[in-house]
Structures are given as structure tokens and as C-alpha cells.
Amino acid sequence: MERKIVYWPDKGLNTPTRPVEDFGPELEALLEEMLEACKKADGIGIAANQVGVSLRLAWIGQEDGTFFEIANPEILQRSGNVTYEEGCLSVPDQFEKVKRFEKVKVRFQDRTGAWKELEAEGRLAHVFQHEIDHLDGKVFVDHLSQLKRGIIRERMSIFKRRNG
Ligand SMILES: [Zn+2]
């Protein structure tokens, strides 16, 4: 099944997702569909609620171009500050600088349910925070000023009219 990207503003994007409880073939199939949608749109990460599924599940893209899945992630430690230009598959063609933690230590499950821990920094740490934000019901535009968010909202209404 081809999964369509949900565009902001959307209620599902601003609603916290439910924990993953069943690790099995259905989860595998959903993960493959999410990755396909992500790659098709040239993304470096995708969260389940971006394809309309309320689950605490996402793909994280690494700098070498490979991706790995995360289920039920939690940030255990945060340090430093860094600002990068950020974009989002749900907010096409809009890029803004967002301040994030420079380093994060994250705990998450893989597709089999096994727990893993990872310390990430730089771009990877940024992607982790962006995707975990999605799972918490937050989009990167929620970090911007009301004025900037309003401008992007206006551009998105034009985009939505053009793209059905
Ligand atoms: Zn995003």
C-alpha cells in the first residue's frame, strides 16, 4: 500500500502518538511503506503520524544515506545547543533555522522490540529531536515565532490548494 504524506496543518500531526506494542509482520510492513514514502519525497526521516498512523515509530536517516527504525524512543540526556536549517516532509519547500540540543542520548526499540541506546550529535542528533517531536505531536514550525508560523501556514494553504 502506498502511503501518502500528511501535510501541516493537520490534527494528527499535533496529537501525541500511541506506543508501539505489537512487534511483528504488520509493523515490518508499515515500516517498509514509511521508508518508501520518505525516500520518494527525499526525506532524511519520517514519523508514523506523517503517513496518518498514530504510533510511536519513525525512521532516522544517517549521513551515509542509510536509515534505521526507532520505536518508543525516549531522550535520556541532552546537552549543548546548535542551530540548523530544518525542513519537513509535511511542510514541503519551507526551511527555517531551529535551535536544538547538540548532543542527545536516546533509548529506543528496534523492529524486533529489542532496546538500544545511542549517543548522537550534530545532524543525527537534530534528526532524532525532529522525529521525536513528531511523535510527541510537535512539528518544527511549532518552534518558530507566531509571525513565521503564520507566513508558513499561508504558504501551505496555497500548496494544499494546488496539490489537492
Ligand atoms: Zn518532519
Topology diagram in text:
Layout: H1 25-40, E1 45-47, E2 57-61, E3 67-79, E4 82-88, E5 91-100, E6 103-109, E7 115-121, H2 122-135, H3 146-163
Antiparallel strand pairs: 1-2, 2-3, 3-6, 4-5, 6-7
Structure description:
This protein is of the alpha+beta class. The protein has one domain (about 10-164): Peptide deformylase (Peptide Deformylase, Alpha-Beta Complex), CATH 3.90.45.10. Helix content is about 30%, strand content about 30%. It has helices at about 25-40, 120-135, 145-164; strands at about 45, 55-60, 65-80, 80-90, 90-100, 105-110, 115-120. The longest helix is centred in the last third of the chain and has 18 residues, at about 145-164. Zinc ion binds near residues 88 and 89.
User: What is the fourth-level CATH superfamily?
Assistant: Peptide deformylase
Strand content: 25-35%
Radius of gyration: 15 Å
**Count of domain modules:** 1
Total count of strands: 7
Query: If helices are DSSP runs of H or I spanning 4 or more residues, what is the number of helices?
Result: 3
Topology as a string of helices (H) and strands (E): HEEEEEEEHH
Task: Give a short overview.
The protein has 164 residues and is α+β, with helices and mostly antiparallel strands. It is 29% helix and 32% strand. The protein is built from 3 helices and 7 strands, in the order αβββββββαα.
